[in-house]
User: What shape does this take?
Amino acid sequence: MKKQLLTVLSLLVVLTAILSACSNNTGGETGEANTQTDGTAKAKLELWTFNELHQTFYEDMARRWNEANPDKQFDLTVNTFPYDDMHNKLLVALQSGTGAPDLADIELNKFPNFLKGEPQLLPLNDVVEPELGNVVQSRMDIYAKDGQYYGIDFHVGAAVIYYNKEILDQAGVNADDIETWADFEAAGKKVLEATDVPMTSLETADLWSLWPQVSQAPGNDDFQTADGKVNITSPLVLEPIKWQQNLLKSGVAIPAPGGNHHSEEYYGLMNSGGTASVWMPMWYMGRFTDYMPDLKGKIIIKPMPAWEVGQPRSAGMGGTGTAVTKTTKNPELAKAFLAFAKLSKEGNIEIWKQLGFDPLRSDVWSDPALSEPNKFTEYFGPDIFDVLNEVKDEIEGVNINETTPMISDAFRTSVLVRILLDNEDPEKVLKEAADQL
Assistant: This one.
């Protein structure tokens, strides 16, 4: 009996080992040999990310690639690490020249760290340049250096404004009449008077309220000038933050509970009709569907108001640039797969379907596939991409370089609190922050 039990246990151990090995093979069906149709061994690619949803997307795109390319199949291993751990681990691996994956997701604010000196990432111009006419150029520029493109994003991250139409209707406000931020403030006073509900909330511990307003202004400057100089004392930054300070003083806006629009306290407030609007990037749609279910059918998406009529009504916010490392043993395959996953029409449609992001390729925004029913169209209606098509030539870019992380930290930890919560003089606070930077 003991011998039989040991035999069964031994078989279970062997079976577990086999299944474990198969589970890491996302390049083909479970149990499939690591060979291609011609009998040659499959290539292997490893990818690092900090987001489990990204991992699922890449694994699906690897499966699609292998189905479409039976003579160029590969096995993809995707490893997901905590955000800081992954970026630090990747930086060390690239600096030492050993241990780096073939591909890696690098978040926008961390990307400048990987472009210092001679980048240890491969230029992607050969796969990017043929598609430049189809993608939003500003989203490629933030991952570029000296004319070379080193990363490809998931999305445009176009900033839009989400209105609670039910509250606006109660106040007799039509969202389509709000063309400028002055119009927005006037409408907010009307909403507050009629419903006793603030028009919006403002972040005091993150940049998603301020950065879009700064970046949407015409020209190439925002928190930094186009040539990389700190620009936070300029009217581009001073005027929006003064406007926000006054909006809070009037009661038209309130500080976002928890300091930002990603806190549980904020979700609870907005979900219960606690404010009439919020401006955030398109990728924020997923926060509504996942954390604010009671607003289904009540939220409408519109372009952000402009500072003046005729000026830009959006800016590209946030992002993750996927890169190919110099140490990869399969550079051409890695670049080809990356282009397939994030630059091709099929990849961009799947980015929308699987992740709910506004894809880089503007030529797919009118594709029927993007109007097919999913949790986003059920929540917001079928015309989501009408807004993007309306502002696609007005999506301003952002300046990203080695100073970006320090500027972001200064605003998140000090500047916003001092100006928006403590009501200190904006000019004084910005000058002190600029001197420290």
Q: What stands out?
A: The two ends are 75 Å apart (CA to CA). The longest helix spans residues 2-23. Residues 1-32 have pLDDT under 50 and may be disordered.
